Prior knowledge:
The chain is an alpha/beta fold and 219 residues long.
Amino acid sequence: MYRIAPSLLSADFARLGDEVKDVIAGGADLMHFDVMDNHYVPNLTVGPLVCEALRPHCSVPIDVHLMVKPVDRIVPDFAKAGASIISFHPEASEHVDRTLSLIRDQGCKAGLVFNPATPLAWLDHVMDKVDLILIMSVNPGFGGQSFIASALPKIREVRRRIDESGRDIWLEVDGGVKADNIAAVAKAGADTFVAGSAVFGEKDRAAAIRRMREALAGA
Ligand code: DX5
Ligand code: ZN
């Protein structure tokens, strides 16, 4: 019932295909793919071309996290490039409802992402249109930041809203998740865990993922 999604942001970009295979062999459930545009966030990463190139090496679903503004133009490109899930930040879209429908129309699961200071009110009218809710426990833009503790009550509130809706919506958490705090994040109600530096920063990625699963087993 728990999913671990290593974030490629902390991988060795000179050998991305091998990095993907390494973490999948090590037990990754999803591949988290961070897209940054040097506009919505102050960093620049990779686009659909790289997603498409990795697809044949990736036997798990690709979880695309768009940190871009505007959002809509790039959505079909990522769907064609093999994304299974496409998530975006509501402040970066002029029409959140339309963007969610666009993602689903392209055959992908649609996710909405909340920065530490983004209110959950964005969920009020779209619970029937989201497949995933992603709570940021850092401000987006960089890997290796520390977990912001105020994410925990927010995760609890999202869990309450999901349970109340009766829908099968995944609750993902992104930023500063490690083996020593993943159990607390799970207890707050998350089921899907992004981990960049905690996985790719370790030499033995399988051991890093195993330590997280062991911590989750005790949650
Ligand atoms: C940050 C990205 C994260 C990042 C997490 O903007 O969205 O996915 O890779 O990295 P860690 O796990 O190192 O905080
Ligand atoms: Zn991310």
